[in-house]
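Bug #77: duplicate submission created two jobs. Keeping one. Sequence:
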Amino acid sequence: MHFRFIGSGDAFGSGGRLNTCFQVVGEKVNFLIDIGASSLIGMKAQAVDRNAIQTIFVTHFHADHFGGLPFFMLDAQFFSRRVLPLTVVGPAGLPKWYERVMETAFPGSFATKPKFRFDLIEVVPGQTLTVGDVAVTAFQAVHGNPGGPFLAYRFEAESKVLAYTGDTEWTDALVDAGYEADLMIAEAYFFDKKVKLHLDVDSLEKGLGRMRPKRLVLTHMSDDMLERAASLPYETASDGLVLELKDA
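Kept job's structure:
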């Protein structure tokens, strides 16, 4: 199994990086985690087979995590000529947000029915879903109004456990999401500066002793963090980086 950072940046292009989009590929699974506005650019630059992607898991509806879906859908319809089914999983309100993002990006596009099976599945915090060969559990992230549609995820597939914080302040829900995960991907927007609704390394470190992930990689870094990346005691993401997840 391998984990690819198609895009590892924040909402503002810090370091010239693309918006958040990760890909997980194994023997049976092939899915995306988030699909920020610039994701299709990253997929084409990195020669990603878009038609092989089975599922897209969305953490929240901000453009740097969700805004790439219209481009992906129209590419699937008219250029890659997708025929295989596609499922999008996301927070409560996903069907309305899907219509909104399509109509905002390309007015009239929502009325065009895909030529492939297309399913939208909502997931709420505390719920575990099985989608194909992936089991996903959603956790409440803190990235807006209390109880809002912001999620962290824990994935189980092909004997591996992967976790992603999404965008969030520190919350103890992250301990359960990332507990002893084979790979934990964590937002690290700042080093020790406390910014509402975002995670900093100092806050993350205070919870790592309880979380105990086997491997930790930091992503979604501001310019402040990117300047420190080489001196950090943690792995850091970059666009195009591929991590191999081998059996022990």
